[in-house]
Write a structure and sequence with these properties.
By secondary structure, the protein is of the alpha+beta class. It contains ten helices and 19 strands. The chain is globular, with a radius of gyration of 23 Å. The model has no long low-confidence stretch (mean pLDDT 95).
Length: 429
């Protein structure tokens, strides 16, 4: 058996696409209630297999720039594929830094457990380092796969529900600005503007891929109904947008549900105004909001905070540190902290292993090799989970993922890395 891992050529793009589950109409998410799904089912039905026209459109995107595919060949046959997207992620500072986004990953069923995915990951890590990307990230379709490659869950998302009768604000004071229901064309123009404003400040947020909002439509989608769009303007400028559906249901249980598919606001007034209307929409009785932050400000605006019930929660972005020194130097930290940290061997990125002196503070961080005794031992996966500041170092230490070698060192590391509010990314890839 001859194995070859390499980028695909243009003539191989169809073979590459045809190993991917969503292109073949196969499941591409584990069969469990997903926090990003707003419907009553546990998860959405897989799409129909791609048509020739769709394959042609996908092929254009593969070679459209910012998409770096790798493939696994066995005896000349393409049996696995993955890719990295050129993205930016907002880190504490806030600062936007380059990240390689792993996506479009699959190995055909007949060739699994032969090291093909590891080979593709290694090739993508090496290429990302050559492009100057210190971080890699992904949205895991199955939770048990990517820890072995050094990825750790770094952000979370929740799906919550609230009954309209319980959705009163504690302070009903009016907000500034104006709301307007608009069509898809206006929404396609507004989304990039609002997202650009939001991701400047939101740690964990991602740059959108080209054409992300191009497919927004006013047309109905089966029983899900058409997408509706609501924008908020202050002084004539759009600073908030939401998109939602009012799906039809044959059951009384799900009748009158308004599903908020996405909502972003660049100001507190826009945020409050958008939710104020959506929580009191005519002829509805329940609002469902998937893929929302864990620390949603709306909860604190309600007369009864417990009225907002979290019905699903999951990890969202998984992060992998490819270049430890580059990653540490890319963000800011809370307070002034100096620590000696040992990173165990990292076979896929061997430059990360060793003992490092970290000097962390509000102006940035530095990471240099040292011969001093380590105060903390922490693996690259745990570092990925902590890097954006959304998780507790003490919790990971209690789970055995961090070893404290000087009393108080874990607490110091946790304080330096922590970020408030918790990191969040509004979409997956």
């Amino acid at each position: 058996m001859t194995i070859e891992i390499r980028p695909i050529e243009r003539a191989e793009v169809r073979a590459y696409l045809q190993v991917l589950p969503y292109v073949n109409g196969l499941p591409h998410w584990e069969p469990a209630p997903a926090a990003w799904h707003g419907g009553p089912e546990a998860w959405p039905q897989p799409p129909a297999p791609a048509t020739d026209a769709q394959l042609d459109a996908f092929a254009e995107r593969v070679f459209g720039g910012g998409f770096f595919p790798q493939a696994a060949f066995v005896d000349g046959r393409l049996v696995g594929g993955s890719a990295m997207l050129a993205m930016d992620i907002t880190v504490p500072g806030p600062r936007a830094v380059p990240m390689g986004g792993v996506t479009a990953t699959a190995v055909v069923a007949t060739h699994r457990r032969r090291g093909l995915l590891r080979g593709m990951m290694q090739a993508m890590f090496d290429a990302a380092l050559a492009r100057g990307e210190a971080l890699a990230g992904l949205s895991a379709s199955e939770g048990g796969i990517y820890g072995r490659y050094g990825f750790g869950p770094a952000t979370r998302r929740t799906r919550w529900e609230i009954e309209r009768a319980e959705a009163a604000f504690a302070d009903p004071a009016p907000t500034g600005g104006d709301l307007e229901l608009v069509g898809a064309a206006a929404a396609r123009a507004a989304w990039p503007q609002v997202h650009a404003l939001v991701r400047r400040e939101r740690v964990g947020e991602l740059s959108p891929q080209p054409g992300r909002w191009d497919r927004l439509s006013d047309e109905s989608s089966g029983t899900a109904g058409p997408m509706r769009y609501l924008v908020h303007r202050t002084g004539g400028a759009v600073d908030g947008i939401a998109q939602f559906r009012l799906p039809w249901s044959s059951t009384v249980e799900h009748t009158g549900t308004l599903v908020v598919e996405a909502l972003e606001a660049a100001s507190p007034d826009a945020y409050r105004a958008l939710w104020g209307l959506l929580l009191d929409f005519d002829l509805t009785r329940r609002v469902v909001a998937p893929a929302r932050p864990v620390d949603e400000p709306l909860r604190w605006m309600l007369r009864s905070p417990r009225a907002m019930r979290v019905t699903r929660q999951s990890d969202s972005l998984w992060l992998r540190i490819l270049d430890l020194a580059g990653a540490i130097g890319s963000r800011q930290y809370t307070g002034e902290t100096g620590l000696t940290v040992e990173v165990p061997p990292d076979p896929m990125c061997p430059g990360n292993a060793g003992v490092w002196r970290l000097d962390l503070g509000p102006s940035g961080g530095s990471c240099v090799r040292t011969g001093a005794a380590p105060e903390v031992t922490i693996g690259i996966q745990a570092l990925g989970s902590l890097f954006l500041g959304g998780h507790s170092a003490a919790l990971l230490a209690a789970a055995g993922l961090i070893r404290e070698r000087r009393a108080g060192a874990v607490a110091a590391l946790g304080r330096a890395l922590r970020h408030d509010p918790e990191p969040f990314n509004a979409f997956v890839f």
